[in-house]
């Protein structure tokens, strides 16, 4: 389903969401980039290094969660042009440990358009293997996207 139509069009909304992601203070800790090429789909590219490891020498679960949650969230928010969404629930399935190197989180909207949205996401390592999967629910907040400093339409 196409996103809700708003001033500036679909591509402007996607670029504004990418700007919002980049402006989030948490992303000073995660050198990552969001890409939204189409409605309902989001990708985040990230380079993992030892700063994100637990004592056992692999990526800590916080990295998995952040990337998967963000990818699923932005897949859903790409369909909403007026409000910021909020995560209400997120489930993770870890299948392999992640070491250093590039990783991509791919999020896809599954269902919902009015109040609650559902999306899944998967984390892919540099060999193309899925290392984790997540499913989340997201709902509209009272926060207008246009009120957020990072949400700047081109």
UniProtKB/TrEMBL annotation:
The keyword Hydrolase applies. InterPro entries: HotDog_dom_sf (IPR029069), PAAI_dom (IPR003736), Thioestr_dom (IPR006683). Residues 56-132 form the Thioesterase domain. GO terms for molecular function: acyl-CoA hydrolase activity. Pfam families: 4HBT. Keywords: Hydrolase. This is Thioesterase. It comes from Sphingomonas spermidinifaciens. The lineage of its organism: Bacteria, Pseudomonadati, Pseudomonadota, Alphaproteobacteria, Sphingomonadales.
């Amino acid at each position: 389903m196409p996103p809700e139509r708003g001033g500036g069009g679909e591509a402007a909304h996607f670029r504004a969401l990418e700007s919002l992601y980049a402006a989030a203070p948490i992303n000073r800790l995660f050198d990552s980039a969001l890409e939204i090429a189409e409605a309902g789909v989001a990708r985040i590219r990230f380079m993992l290094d030892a700063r994100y490891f637990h004592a056992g020498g692999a990526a800590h679960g916080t990295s998995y969660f952040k990337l998967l949650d963000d990818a699923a969230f932005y897949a859903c928010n790409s369909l909403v042009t007026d409000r910021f969404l909020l995560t209400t629930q997120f489930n993770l399935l870890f299948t392999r440990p992640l070491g250093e190197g590039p990783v991509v989180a791919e999020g896809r909207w599954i269902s919902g358009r009015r109040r609650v949205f559902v999306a899944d996401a998967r984390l892919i390592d540099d060999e193309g293997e899925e290392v984790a999967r997540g499913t989340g629910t997201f709902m509209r907040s009272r926060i207008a996207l246009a009120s957020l400093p990072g949400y700047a339409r081109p």
